[in-house]
Model the fold of this input.
Amino acid sequence: MRKSADVASVKADLLVVCLPGPPGDLTGAVADVDAALGGRVRAAVADGEIDGKAGAATRFHSGSALAAPRVAVVGVGEGSAEDWRSAGGGVASLTSRVATKVVAIVPPADAGTAEVGAFVEGLGTGVYRFDRFTTSSDAPAPPERLYVHSAAVRTADLKRADRVVDAVNGARDLSNTPANHLTPTDLADHAKALADGIAGLSVTVLGPSKLEKLGAGGLLGVARGSDEPARMIVMRYRPSSPARPGEVLGLVGKAVTFDTGGISIKPSNGMEEMKMDMGGGAAVIEATALIAALGLPVEIISVVPATENMPSGRAVKPGDVLTALNGKTIEVINTDAEGRLILADALTHAAREGATRLIDFATLTGAIVVALGEVYAGLFGSDDEWTRLVREAADSSGDLAWPMPLHARYAPLIASQVADLSNSSNKRQAGAVYAAQFLREFTEGVPWCHVDVAGTAMVSGKGTGFGVRLILAVAERLAEPAPL
Ligand code: BES
Ligand code: MN
Ligand code: ZN
Done:
């Protein structure tokens, strides 16, 4: 058997070796580490302290037995991508207590780019911290470098994983940034800066006068209450040779940079969390730039409607009627159901600008949080084949999404006495379905999926970057030529 590296000579603050679960006989690097440590790893396995469960990481001090002063044995379970991501996360948590500048991993010989890449993702997203607004901290700095000692994995192949980490963490930064530091204009500027220098990617930002001409009454209606002007952020990616010529992936993301509820104001307790109401838009912006930077052969149009939802003397009021971009009229029953108003215009705009399939990401309803919690996002779809593709992409990416229904018999929910549609009903029924059913009216018949990320975009007050990896996984599927 080929030895992947001489573990004793690997220089790092923390050396990582991997163990499947349940563990069999120790082999490869972990056996070498065990031998150097005089059988301590085997002893820990024998008494069950080390069980190989994905993400379970145990640290040993190596004394003078290895060049690295500390070594971590991390479980990789059955070896799925999710298991390897957990392993990276487990190692990340070991680096949060002691300063660990350099991490080195000696993966098993049968671990390739997919496995090690997933480890890199787990580590890079696991060491993430949001410290932009803390002026002092006792916590040690996160690792600066990861060395991979493997004949099977080339550093260049890990570029994808590095970029995924940057995009997920970038989306988290946006969600975590307070609304006074991330206005709709700031978000638009961020999208422009991100796209700068990426081949084939361009960004156009529509302000109030352009939106007026378009007739984007939903977005403008919500923005009326705020002193911050609305922005519709449009990103286009045109690869040089698309895998499916004529196909255009339309991505739409809700970006309410702060949701007070408007005149239908929210209770003050916990309202600070509503700085994350742009998490869907953040995922769309970061994923669009990621896909373009990776050069995937998929044409994309992304539309992110951005605004605050504020109460004021000019704000939209319950009972007001707005006219959406597609001409449909909407009675605003509840100004806190603002997401669907701005997404309505964005979906229509994406379809009219050429999207041949649509998917939107939105922190849309409290009802989806009640239904699915923080594990699964809600997945709605108007087209079985497209919905299946998205669901498979969700499973493989780790950004999980569970199917929810749409049905013509829900239609009476969204009826209004005075306009074509109402944005909310007083019936406390099927709140997440209501919102999806409403959005469908603005999709121009284009195959469409809606992902309600209200429960998954922020967990324990921290942005997750949910959606970035799911969008990438969707794009990777569309980067394959269409099946016959
Ligand atoms: N942004 C909220 C939804 C939300 C809730 C996101 C919890 C994240 C966590 C959305 O704009 C909203 O207020 N929805 C209302 C709709 C209702 C008034 C029909 C809701 O779900 O209560
Ligand atoms: Mn709201
Ligand atoms: Zn909202």
